[in-house]
Amino acid sequence: GGRVLVTAGNHEAEFLADPTTSKADDFIAELRAAGIAPGDVAAGRNALGQYLRSLPIAARVRDWFFCHAGNTGGRTLAKLTADVEKGLNKSGFGAAVLSDDASILEARVEPTPWWETGRDPAGTLRSYAAALGVAHIVMGHQPGKYTFADGEKRSKGTIVGRYGVLFLTDVGMSRGIDYSSGALLRIHTAAGKTTATALYGDGRTKTVYSN
Which residue from 23, 75, 97, 131 could staple onto 80, CB 3.0 to 4.6 Å apart? Predict the structure, then answer.
């Protein structure tokens, strides 16, 4: 009864912008081994390319917003949509709105997380979420350990929440990183109460948000 929504990440966008990028070396090798030209995929000249080019940059589900690197720049959903469409139409998948260091697909926590560039990280996150018409922002992109400005620590391969607004869900389960056996964030809402639980591949669970 559910629905799977797959959103684009920086590696997909980088490959579509440049099908020779070193970040896609493994993917390019697999395509060539299968007799598929990477350039044809990037140009959308086959079903795989059409699929990759059709991936949404983000998804809003009720009061949760999902995107790869989290940083929307404080835009409203309408403004974000317009900026992404304008960038894609003008510059393709290499557009600054997708490829800049502080963009929705590329922003990183180091050296400074995008929500900590001002004096009020919690306020920044709440204002960004409010502009989108949601209460929570879920991102991937960052699997490693990190110590935040307030001293809170995130261990590699774990799902964490910040201020009840931002949730980091990348646990590094790919062959290239291999921090974990996988995890997912289960969001359950009933009778006005929402609980977000991290479920790990080894059977562990941890509540990361409850209102």
Answer: 75
Residue partners of 197: CB distance under 8 A and separation at least 6: 185, 186, 188, 205, 206, 207, 208
Contact 56, 5 (CB under 8 A): yes
Q: Provide the 8-state DSSP code for 175.
A: T
**Buried b / exposed e along 1-27 (16+ C-beta atoms within 10 A):** eeeeeebbbbebbbbbbbbebeebeeb
61: its two tokens: 């589900």
Give the pLDDT confidence score for residue 179 in this predicted structure: 76
Nearest in space to 14 (alpha carbons), one of 82, 79, 105? 105
**Residue in the block written with tokens 């720049």:** 73
Q: At what angle do helices 77-91 and 121-132 cross, to 10 degrees?
A: 80
- pTM for the whole structure: 0.94
pLDDT one-digit tens code per residue, 126-182: 999 999 999 999 999 999 899 988 888 999 999 999 999 999 999 988 777 777 888
Rounded Cα distance, 120 and 198, in Å = 26
Q: How many CB atoms lie within 10 A of CB 64?
A: 20
CA dihedral sign of residues 117, 173, 139, 186: negative
